[in-house]
Amino acid sequence: MALVDDPMIDEAGFRMSEATAGDFFALLKPRVMSLVVFTAFVGMVAAPVTINPLIAMVAILAIAIGAGASGALNMWYDADIDAVMSRTASRPVPSGRILPGEALSFGLVLSVLSVMTLGVLVNWLSAALLAFTIFFYAVVYTMWLKRSTPQNIVIGGAAGAIPPVIGWAAVTGTVSLESLVLFLIIFLWTPPHFWALALFKSDDYAKAGIPMMPVIAGQASTRRQIFAYALILAPIGVLPWVLGFTTAFYGVASLALGIGFVWYAWKVLRMTDDDRAMKPAKALFAYSLLYLFAIFAIYLADCVVGRALAIGGA
Fold this sequence. Notes:
Elements: H1 2-5, H2 21-27, H3 30-46, H4 53-77, H5 79-82, H6 100-121, H7 124-148, H8 152-161, H9 163-172, H10 177-200, H11 202-208, H12 213-216, H13 219-242, H14 248-269, H15 279-313
C-alpha cells in the first residue's frame, strides 16, 4: 500500500518518470550539439558544389539529432560517474529526473532516426559516417576509452572531429583532403581543450575514477602535453590557406588565433602544482572555445565572401 501512496510509483509498483521536455533536451547535450552542427555546416558550405536548401536543412537536422543521440547514450552509460562529479551531478539521469531506461531508449531511437533520415533523404556515405560517429562516441569512447586510458580524449576526439567531414559528404557524396584538414584541426584541438578542463577539475575526475591525464600522469606532464599540442595545432590551423583552400584573410586570422593558443598554453606550462586558483588553465579552456568557433567562423566567411567575389568578377 505504501508504494501506491507514493505519487511517483504506479499501481504496478513501477517508478514513474519526473522528466520534462527540458530534461530530455538537456539529455541531448545542446552545447556540444551546437558545435557539431556549426562545424558540419561549415563543411557543407566549404564543399565545391551546392545542394537543394531543403536537403541541406534535412542534413543539418539529421546531424543534430545524431549528435544529440550520442549525448543521450553517453549520459545513460555515465550516470554512475556523473553522480559523483560536481560538474555533472545535476544532469537529468544522475539527478533522477530521467530514468536510465528512458535515456537509453531515447538515444537509440534518435540514433536510428538520424542515420536513416540522412541515408534515405541525403546519401548513404554521410549516413555511414554519422553512424560511425555515434558508435565511436557512445561505445568506443564512453564505454571503453573514457574509463580505461588517459589517452581517452586523444583517441575519442575523433568522434567530435568528424562533423565537417559528414557535412562535406552530405553535399558531395565524397570525402576530400579539405574536409580531412578540418577534421584534423578539431582532432588536435580536443586534447588541450579537455586537458585544460581536467587540470582544474582533476579532483572530480579522481573521485569518479576516470583516468584523465592529470590524474594518471600528473599536472606537470599534462601541462607539457598541452603545450606540445598547441605547438602542433597552431600551424595546422593555417594549413587550409597553405593548401590553397582559403584566401590570405583566413591565413592571417588563423595564424593570429594560433599564436594566441600557444601563448595561453605557455602560461599553463609555467604553472606550478601549487597554483590552486588554476587561472591559466581556466583561461586556456575559455580561449580554446573561442579559438575553435573563430577558426570555423572565419573559414565560413572566407568561403562565402570568396565565392561572392568570384561570381562578381565572372
